């Protein structure tokens, strides 16, 4: 009888769970909704930022540009993190960065700090977290990958 090592046990567990963990796509969709909820109403936030900091449209949309650039370039960071960390750890780091960025932006005294906290830190956090959550779906689903991704 062949001896089964810890690696073969993990592979057997993963095969048993593949295409069967339908709670994962719904948990991922809920997490993604909470992550992007704040940035999806940026038009309203832009008006509030203009009133609070007495700035014009050009200055307020620098914050949005920083958020979009940080969110879009998070894939480079995730590819480097994936070499050393698990998908779970990457998703946690992204969620922590997004939360820290939102909390820090609540206390930002200037537009520059708001651009850094809300734009860069929060944007990087949601980019990392969303990529990590998407990787979860790619790990747990093979045959029904399209359906699971559609739920996200």
TrEMBL record:
Keywords: Membrane, Transmembrane, Transmembrane helix. The chain crosses the membrane at residues 21-47, 59-78, 90-108, 120-141. InterPro entries: MFS_trans_sf (IPR036259), Proton-linked_MCT (IPR050327). It comes from the Eukaryota. The keyword NADP does not apply. One of its GO terms (molecular function) is monocarboxylic acid transmembrane transporter activity. Coiled coil: none annotated. PANTHER family: MAJOR FACILITATOR SUPERFAMILY (MFS) PROFILE DOMAIN-CONTAINING PROTEIN, MONOCARBOXYLATE TRANSPORTER. This is Monocarboxylate transporter. It comes from Amblyomma americanum.
């Amino acid at each position: 009888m062949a001896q089964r090592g810890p690696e073969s046990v993990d592979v057997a567990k993963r095969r048993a769970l593949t295409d069967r963990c339908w709670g994962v796509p719904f948990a991922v969709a809920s997490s993604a909704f909470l992550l992007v909820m704040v940035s999806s109403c940026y038009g309203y936030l832009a008006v509030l930022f203009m009133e609070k900091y007495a700035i014009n449209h050009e200055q307020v949309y620098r914050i949005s540009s920083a958020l979009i650039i940080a969110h879009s370039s998070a894939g480079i960071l995730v590819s480097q993190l994936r070499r050393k960390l698990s998908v779970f750890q990457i998703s946690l780091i992204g969620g922590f960065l997004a939360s820290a960025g939102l909390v820090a932006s609540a206390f930002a005294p200037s537009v520059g700090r708001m651009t850094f906290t809300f734009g860069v830190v929060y944007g990087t956090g949601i980019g990392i977290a969303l990529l990590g959550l998407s990787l979860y779906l790619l790990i747990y689903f093979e045959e029904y990958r399209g359906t699971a991704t559609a739920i996200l």
